[in-house]
Design a protein that fits this description.
Blueprint (H helix, E strand, L loop, with lengths): L4 E3 L6 E3 L1 H7 L5 E2 L13 E9 L4 E8 L5 E2 L73 H9 L5 H6 L2 H8 L5 H14 L1
Antiparallel strand pairs: 1-2, 3-4, 4-5, 5-6
């Protein structure tokens, strides 16, 4: 079943559907059907964050049902799935002991032991703390030059959190670009910096 939803403030509207969700929302923001109790939603629910909702005429945190396109303004009820119980192993019948065979004694020639080779000391590798946070300036994001940085800051997008908090098409409109392809690349690079 196909559906479309209109989001965005007046003059900056954009339409979303199933393809948009799959392309723009990472899997970590999806709650699959077995994990939620929303009876009105027969499929997965996607968390698409803070968006301007025309029906409410304000910015709200919203979730969307993948199957019906229904917009939820409250977080879905998530079910905690119990861990499966460990299976009991069947007892294995003991094998009959075989007759012992006494081996003949073999005299081995004595071989001198090799001298021990010194092992270099290996220092443990400590994981460095990430040097980028959501509060990092967008000027640190790969691909954003001086001209783009000036346009972004003029539009009120100063940090990585601001860059990831808006839809790529909305940012493209704010900085006067026709396509949002470059903005998507910036957002991917910003996400990579936070990992």
């Amino acid at each position: 079943m196909s559906w479309k939803q209109l989001l965005g403030s007046p003059g900056e509207e954009f339409i979303i559907g199933k393809r948009w969700l799959k392309k723009h929302i990472p899997k970590k923001y999806r709650v699959s059907k077995p994990n939620h109790k929303e009876s009105s939603c027969p499929g997965a629910i996607y968390d698409i964050g803070e968006r301007f909702l025309p029906s409410a005429n304000k910015i709200q945190h919203i979730w969307i049902c993948m199957e019906t396109g229904q917009i939820l303004t409250e977080a879905p009820s998530v079910i905690v799935i119990p861990k499966p119980k460990p299976r009991k192993e069947k007892p294995v019948a003991a094998a009959k002991p075989k007759k012992k065979v006494i081996p003949k004694k073999v005299v081995k020639p004595k071989i001198p032991e090799p001298e021990p080779v010194p092992v270099p000391e290996v220092k443990p590798v400590t994981k460095a703390t990430p040097k980028f946070t959501k509060e990092t300036s967008v000027s640190e994001v790969k691909g954003i030059g001086n001209a783009a940085f000036d346009k972004l800051t003029t539009a009120g997008i100063n940090t990585i959190d601001d860059l990831l908090g808006k839809h790529s098409q909305e940012i493209a409109t704010l900085i006067g670009r026709k396509s949002d392809a470059q903005i998507k690349t910036w957002q991917d690079n910003a996400l990579a910096m936070l990992d």
